[in-house]
Amino acid sequence: MHTNLFSPVTLNPTLTLKNRVAMAPLTRCMAAADLTPTDDMAAYYARRADVGLIISEATIIRADAQGYPNVPGIFRPSHIEGWQKVTDAVHEKGGTIFCQLWHVGRVSHQVFHGSRPVSASAIGLNERIPRMPGLTYPVPRALGSGEIEQLIEDYAVAASNSRSAGFDGVEIHGANGYLLDQFLHYASNHREDEFGGTPENMVRFPLAVVDAVIAAVGADRVGLRLSPGAYAHMTEDPRDKAVFQLLLAELDKRDLAYLHVGIFDDSMTFDALDGMRSSEFLRANYKGTFMGCGSYTADQADQGIAEGKFDLAAIGRPLIANPDYIQRVQQGEALVEYDAEMLKTLV
Ligand code: FNR
Ligand code: 8K6
């Protein structure tokens, strides 16, 4: 059973994973007030160390990257110390763990960091802020080009900090309508400078971040998550497809550890992607190692690997509900069903 899912995979000369199940990045909002990861978080991740790769919950690269309460950071010495406890606990159990590097851009509010949120353009999201009753997202401020240079540097420093904290690598969060994704979609990028207006310009900042992070920690240790289909904090535009096709052609030259699709339900199809699913579009336009995700059962994930739809599968909500997911699937035991109530505690 599940022979594909439980076969090891060599990503590159640096990293071999013991199986093809990744723990999807899952924001839990359980870090301390100063955004330092806690001992409870170390125990939570260590309980899941038998997956091939743990991708940490999204972790902010600097103060104005925050858009949810109590998310962890990776930009202060205390953050590095807290994450070191997490990575030590995971490594003691034989696990491998990447840090997901995050900037939310316009999906934020000044209550989190005292300044107006930043984005590609001054285009607001007409949505309420989850877990913050009564708050809606304000119109962000468009980043100046000098500020973009600084951000590129901040991503690279966060990647170096992740390695200092013992992470085996990093996943750049370029998905789900957050900052990098805001540059990649026409709905949120109306810039008229070298970062907007054409596919070449729209991929410039995200690619510069990828290159700076590669320079900091090496391509073998860098993954990237993308959402070519606009489904979260984003509206689709038929022109988006060309932006992602160019980006994927460029990424193919860079030997990343893997590319990962950002989607909640991979049965969704997108008009802007010629009716394709997000994973189908990425697989068709990218030659390297590809990680599927999005409401997959173990059976479907195993079959997806067998059919060549993806090389690894990230599992999210079932791993919140079942810390012993790998053992249960291997032994053919029933899984506990996920319930959003489970987000209240770190089990
Ligand atoms: C998520 N997801 C998510 N994605 C991401 O890139 N970074 C993150 O920090 C989070 N946080 C997060 C929190 C919670 C509570 C949920 C449910 C989801 C999306 C997640 O990685 C994954 O794409 C989806 O959950 C779909 O996979 P499953 O759960 O159907 O296996
Ligand atoms: C990435 C930050 C996530 C913050 C935590 C909120 C997660 C809520 C998860 C609810 C899951 C419902 C899935 C519905 C899919 C909708 C796609 C937009």
Automatic annotation (TrEMBL):
Domain NADH:flavin oxidoreductase/NADH oxidase N-terminal, chain residue ranges per copy: 5-333
Cofactor needs: FMN
Similarity comment: family membership: Belongs to the NADH:flavin oxidoreductase/NADH oxidase family.
Pfam families to which the protein is assigned, alphabetical: Oxidored_FMN
Protein's recorded name: Alkene reductase
Superkingdom field: Bacteria
GO CC annotations, alphabetized: cytosol
GO molecular function list: FMN binding; oxidoreductase activity, acting on the CH-CH group of donors, NAD or NADP as acceptor
Keywords: Oxidoreductase
